[in-house]
User: Which sequence fits this backbone?
């Protein structure tokens, strides 16, 4: 049984290319049997998949024994000799399933960012999929919502166990415990049996009735609903990319399209495209909210922002519509030294700047690489009084005006790096090089390269 499940999992992972590149996979382990099975399975497959593993646990602060569960997961991680990342929340008793889930994912993505993990892996399985489709059907979700739980999500989210049932994972743990000197500890959350929670009620009351009436067909038919709805989702995702006038693109973790087509298209088509755009980054837009977003897109001016809830915003930036995580806005970044010593590297917000000493090359105005005369410089955000004389140009230009003309979205301008020295702006990467501190060709100089580190 154990060998068979492991082989089937390997075949699924390779066929679906769920881990296409080597890297660190952060496993979300609640301590329940499903996530413990996930941990044990992937530990045995990590070398074959070329993955490094780490364990993340979120203590919601809801159940009175949550501290003990967190300690149990920490001990489990130590048993496998894996790094452990704990996030403790204080949600309190009575917190809704929806609020707890949103808080958990926020915490897990923060842990992913802090650990530098390429993948965030959860233990959702086939029974979760059936329950999700039925739950959303009863809530009156749109067609795309009936696709259920996707195998992949934004920001490296992966759910490798979706083809396998709760019973199969339980059987895996049983046999593994029979093979091990010390059984793998699991925590069975009593909240999963409380019928005041909708999903627990569906699991304990409604699904047994459906299965008694329709047998194995009950689950299969719900899977079919998810499969058909998933095909619809893929079709709308393809439409975003196929309709060339939309000019769909990702940029610094946001997604965006041209505004004019949405103003011109049929209302229902534009709303469907907005919902598809939101799904690209894991933002959920229901039909009513999509209608409000479309009204905002058609009636508001550039620079306006609309709150979408759940940590997302819609922004009008010139002739573009962008959906972006709300926490990206408003960050105040300090100044950091740059260009000191013979070589170095510094991170500044979503940017990384590296430098080394070499003979100066030919300096150009709009490159993401430049040469400066030796000496210490500083990276900071643009200030309201910043001006520069462009290389090869005349007249002093306002840096904020240059950022606007380069169509850097308003919310990103305070997070765009500016290189200064002794009060003079030397360089705005990719936008404008000033004529200050430009070395002659072949003279000793410091080369500086700038790149954004936020994935598209």
Assistant:
């Amino acid at each position: 049984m154990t060998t068979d499940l492991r082989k089937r999992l390997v075949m699924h992972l390779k066929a679906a290319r769920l881990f296409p590149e080597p890297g660190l996979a952060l496993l979300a382990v609640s301590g329940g049997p499903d996530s413990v099975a996930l941990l044990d399975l992937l530990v045995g497959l990590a070398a074959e998949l070329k993955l490094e593993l780490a364990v993340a646990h979120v203590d919601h602060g809801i159940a009175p024994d949550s501290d003990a569960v967190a300690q149990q997961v920490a001990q489990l991680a130590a048993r496998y000799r894996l790094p452990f990342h704990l996030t403790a929340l204080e949600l309190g008793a009575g917190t809704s399933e929806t609020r707890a889930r949103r808080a958990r994912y926020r915490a897990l993505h923060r842990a992913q960012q802090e650990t530098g993990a390429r993948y965030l892996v959860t233990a959702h399985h086939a029974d979760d999929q059936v329950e999700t489709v039925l739950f959303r059907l009863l809530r009156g979700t749109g067609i795309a919502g009936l696709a259920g739980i996707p195998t992949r999500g934004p920001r490296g989210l992966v759910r490798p166990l979706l083809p396998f049932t709760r019973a199969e994972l339980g059987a895996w743990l049983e046999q593994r415990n029979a093979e091990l000197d010390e059984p793998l500890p699991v925590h069975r959350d009593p909240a999963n049996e409380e019928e005041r929670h909708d999903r627990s009620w569906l699991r304990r009351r409604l699904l047994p009735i459906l299965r008694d009436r329709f047998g194995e067909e009950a689950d299969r038919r719900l899977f079919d609903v998810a499969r058909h709805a998933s095909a619809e989702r893929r079709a709308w995702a393809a439409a975003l990319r196929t309709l060339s006038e939309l000019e769909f693109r990702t940029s610094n973790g946001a997604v965006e399209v041209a505004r004019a087509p949405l103003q011109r298209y049929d209302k229902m088509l534009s709303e469907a495209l907005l919902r598809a755009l939101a799904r690209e980054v894991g933002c959920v837009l229901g039909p009513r909210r999509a209608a409000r977003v479309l009204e905002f897109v058609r009636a508001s001016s550039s620079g306006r922002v609309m709150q979408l809830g759940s940590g997302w915003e819609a922004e009008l930036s010139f002739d573009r519509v962008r959906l972006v995580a709300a926490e990206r806005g408003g960050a105040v970044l300090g100044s950091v030294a740059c260009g000191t010593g013979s070589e170095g590297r510094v991170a500044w917000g979503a940017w990384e700047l590296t430098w080394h000493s070499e003979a100066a090359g030919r300096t150009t105005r709009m490159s993401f690489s430049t040469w400066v005369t030796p000496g210490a410089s500083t990276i900071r955000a643009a200030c309201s009084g910043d001006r520069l004389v462009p290389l090869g140009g005349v007249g002093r230009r306002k840096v904020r005006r240059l950022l606007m003309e380069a169509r850097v979205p308003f919310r990103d301008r305070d997070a765009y790096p500016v290189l200064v020295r002794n009060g003079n702006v030397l360089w705005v990467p990719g936008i404008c090089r000033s004529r200050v501190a430009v070395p002659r060709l072949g003279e000793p100089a410091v080369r500086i390269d700038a790149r954004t580190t936020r994935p598209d």
About this structure: The mean pLDDT is 88.
